[in-house]
Amino acid sequence: SPSRMSFNYGGGGSKTGRVPVGIGPRRLRIVVTGGAGFVGSHLVDKLIGRGDEVIVIDNFFTGRKENLVHLFSNPRFELIRHDVVEPILLEVDQIYHLACPASPVHYKYNPVKTIKTNVMGTLNMLGLAKRVGARFLLTSTSEVYGDPLEHPQKETYWGNVNPIGERSCYDEGKRTAETLAMDYHRGAGVEVRIARIFNTYGPRMCLDDGRVVSNFVAQTIRKHPMTVYGDGKQTRSFQYVSDLVDGLVALMENDHVGPFNLGNPGEFTMLELAEVVKEVIDSSATIEFRPNTADDPHKRKPDISKAKELLNWEPKISLRDGLPRMVSDFRNRILNEDEGKGL
Ligand code: NAD
Ligand code: UDP
Ligand code: UDP
After folding, report:
1. Which single residue of 39, 288, 301, 318 could bond 152 by disulfide (Cβ 3.0 to 4.6 Å)?
2. If residue 217 lies in a helix (H) or strand (E), which one and from where to where?
3. Confidence tier at 22 by pLDDT (50, 70, 90)
4. What burial class does residue 331 get, using C-beta atoms within 10 Å of its C-beta: 0-12 exposed, 13-18 middle, 19+ buried?
């Protein structure tokens, strides 16, 4: 297939001249850390779909086997319960490093663990990449820009991050992970790729992870009011998950280290988001106001010119087109939950 043909550098293997794993047709062996999570499981689907071998490493903190169960009988798929904070030995061509809780509710639950995951977990995966000559992609975040003083955010912006706040375990953790990646690149010649991901939504998000899209969609399906934090005038830019996955693969396959912003530039206030949810899911939906959380960034919108130019990537799915695509998955899971409770 065309995608296979464009995919012939062999990860780190082309430089080292390493032969492909196994015998038979050339196939990449790819590790996806955090592959049982929301983004990771969609990425794994794409990699398996084009014929590669995929090993998922996940400790199931926020990930679920259900996200991958449809692959369990596939001989090219393997799932390892493992915490990336501990070292691991594997032979692979590429590493997509996603392991890290992404929702504020989850990453604040045990902040020290979040830092260990970002720092020690990333160090271990970079050590692995160095040892076997694999290409390494880090999923960093728009949170490295903090509460940004530049708008929209370009990759050249260094950010406005509180080092001692409630979000710091995540923001500073990811900033350190980026630093580690660049130091392994410069110091040990590891081929690294850095993606700065902006707010992403879609099927398989945790139902109760507290993120705004999953909250509003689940609340509307349950006929509860949507909880708008603060005055609802803060903005975010929401990207549908398949656009992100395409961007991650394009980044891995290209020659540029990055960092690259991967996000949808369509910017919405939380009140506007609530309007869209109401339009596409239930016209009788209502909102209620709640106090906002600490250090909440006031606005966020990616400048994606760099990814457009160098990766030939841009998102295709608008919020109005993407939201309906997650509704049936959410409805089914909410229904199962209710049945489980005997409701
Ligand atoms: P998620 O919480 O659904 O997935 C994270 C996965 O990592 C889960 O399966 C979890 O069990 C696993 N994990 C966490 N700690 C681990 C550890 N110590 N060892 C092994 N596995 C561990 O989150 P997601 O939305 O899929 O995010 C994936 C990546 O993308 C994260 O690195 C996140 O920081 C980044 N990101 C996501 C968004 C977004 O909007 N979804 C935005 C910016 C960045
Ligand atoms: N590491 C790993 N798997 C490997 C190679 C290394 O988990 O295949 C870990 C290793 O245990 C160490 C980290 O990655 O904690 C960094 O490894 P590196 O070789 O860069 O540094 P060093 O071991 O010299 O500190
Ligand atoms: N938010 C909201 N209602 C909710 C959950 C979040 O209004 O039920 C707001 C939150 O205050 C923030 C924005 O939505 O301004 C995005 O929050 P989220 O946790 O989804 O992502 P992040 O803050 O990491 O961008």
Report:
1. 301
2. helix 212-221
3. low
4. middle
Res. 7 pLDDT band, cuts 50 70 90: very low
215: Cβ below 6 Å to ligand 3? yes
CB 323 within 8 A of CB 217: yes
Output the residue whose Cα is nearest ligand 1's atom 15.
100
Ligand 2 site-directed mutation target among 97, 124, 184, most atoms within 8 Å of CB: 124
Q: 96, 145, 170, 184: which is the annotated catalytic residue?
A: 170
Provide the token pair at 74: 């596939």
Q: Please tell me whether the overall predicted TM-score, pTM, comes out greater than 0.90 for this model.
A: yes
Q: Which helix (H) or strand (E) holds 77?
A: strand 77-81
Peptide bond into 163 cis (omega under 30): no
Q: Tell how far CA 220 is from the center of its chain.
A: 24
More confident residue, 25 or 306: 306
Residue bearing the CA closest to ligand 2, atom 19 = 127
Which residues are registered as beta bridge partners of 287?
Answer: 226
Tokens 């409630």 sit on residue: 166
Q: Which residues surround ligand 2 with Cβ inside 6 Å?
A: 87-89, 123-124, 127-128, 130-131
Contact 301, 235 (CB under 8 A): yes
Least confident of 235-244, 283-292, 304-313, 330-339: 330-339
pLDDT digits (tens, 9 = 90+) for 238-255: 999 999 999 999 999 999
Q: Does 9 participate in catalysis according to the annotation?
A: no
